[in-house]
Amino acid sequence: MIKAMGNSIFRALRPFIILICFLAFLFIPNNIFVSAYDKFRGPGRINDETVVAEEQQSSESTYTAPNSPGVDRSELCNTDMSTFLPPPYNNISNMVCIPVWNTYLLRYHKREGNLVTFIISAVYTTGWVGIGFSKDGLMAGSSAMVGWFTKQGHARIKQYYLQGPRSSQVIADAGELDITKVPPAVVLHGPMIYLAFQAKFEKPLARQPIILAFGTRYPNHHHLSIHDDKTTILFDFSAGSASSGYINPGQMKKNHGILGIFAWSLLLPVGAIVARYLKHKDPLWYYLHAGIQFVGFLFALATVVLGQQLYTKINADIPAHRSIGIFVLTITILQILAFFLRPKKDAKIRRYWNWYHGWFGRIALFFGALNVVLGIHAGSAGIAWKICYGFLIATIMLTVIILEVLSRLRRSETTPPSSFQMNPIS
Fold first, then answer.
1. Which residues, including other chains, have CB under 8 Å from residue 422's CB and lie 6 or more apart?
2. How far is the C-alpha of 338 from the C-alpha of 352, rounded, in Å?
3. pLDDT by residue (tens digit) across 119-138?
4. What number of other Cβ atoms are within 10 A of residue 49's Cβ?
5. 358-391: string of b/e by CB count within 10 Å (b at 16+)?
6. From CA 60, how far away is CA 113, in angstroms rounded?
7. 342 — alpha (psi -120 to 50), left (phi > 0) or beta?
8. Model pLDDT for residues 32-47, shown as the tens digit of each residue
9. Across the chain, what does the average pLDDT equal?
């Protein structure tokens, strides 16, 4: 009989086992670290404000590859920019110059009031060159300055807000960089393109993830072409040093999402389903319910711990998502405590305990699932996350509906018909 019960339980949980394997195959990466090479692309409109280059060259010149060994980056830092950059960029003294990637050089000068002047240069023939300022090393949520020359030799430079990975989410004439009233400039000099701009920051600029990218095709109707190459570095503006191979917390975000989905959309709902629909398998249902919920609690706890690390490392301040996460974790802790304080079946207070345990569990499951949705939205997750999460929730809901119908049918079949007494024939 126990074997038959085990087989029935296995058949009931088989869809969830398949889902676990599916999610693990889809989401868990093949290696621990995620490359910081994000997509740096997108359309945008460029208006005709600002920037007239003082010196231009033909776009048909011979292309020098960014990795060209013939370009000495240290010597390029000695270039006298006063002869070709427009004011005020041509008379800034004591600028820090650091080779950062391929032929890219970053010059900057910090002033009082958290004002920083930037000049980014690189080998150029056609296409566009960009530098982005990111909060966490990822494209989503960063702001970028992009410059290029048109086929007619007209200079263009514009700030873009990289709202998300889709091209429609790359917005021109927007961004979080507080560009000052000093007009940005883009200039060609020799084989190099120079992007110059000045920005004001809320606090002194220190360690900052920087995105560098370029595309060799001309923007089409003010839409940027897909990048040919890109990278992310961690630049220390206090020490004037760059750390290449910057590892962003993208993997930590992914793990945070995977743990949250497993906890609030799979394990804890399955444990609740066992408690509601398998009580006729006493005491098997009780041990299954307690074991699954405890494992789900561990996943939920790990989710909050990773979320707190993200908040500390990259200041991932998402008030609603963070508050709901702490709220549901508090309820699950209370549920664990309630397990150890469970009164006996014949105790008068047992009915109130059952009411508390059941409804607080439903509240936790509802807000936990809602918080996963908020996290997917806040993290600008791809369509695969949304499809898989929607499929998982739909499967859970369909399972609950089917089991609820079967449970009601079973109760109606086992309920004895109402008896009645016939009057004796006189």
1. none
2. 12
3. 989 988 888 888 888 877 77
4. 11
5. eeebeebbebbbebbebbbebbbbeeebeebbee
6. 43
7. beta
8. 223 333 333 333 333 3
9. 76
Q: How far is CA 211 from CA 50, 130, 207, 232, 312, in A?
A: 24, 8, 13, 5, 21
| Exposed / middle / buried, residue 166 (Cβ in 10 Å: 0-12, 13-18, 19+) | middle
Three-class secondary structure of residue 354 per DSSP: helix
Handedness of CA 237, 243, 245, 250 (dihedral sign): negative
- Give the global pTM: 0.49
**φ and ψ of 398, to 5 deg:** -65, -40
Model pLDDT for residues 392-411, shown as the tens digit of each residue = 999 999 999 999 888 888 87
Give residue for tokens 């000695």.
78
pLDDT digits (tens, 9 = 90+) for 219-258: 777 777 677 788 888 888 877 776 655 555 667 788 898 9
Q: Do 186 and 158 touch, CB atoms closer than 8 A?
A: no
Tokens of 308: 């707190």
Q: For residue 378, what are its two tokens? A: 């806040």
Q: CA-to-CA distance for 295 and 41, rounded, in angstroms?
A: 41
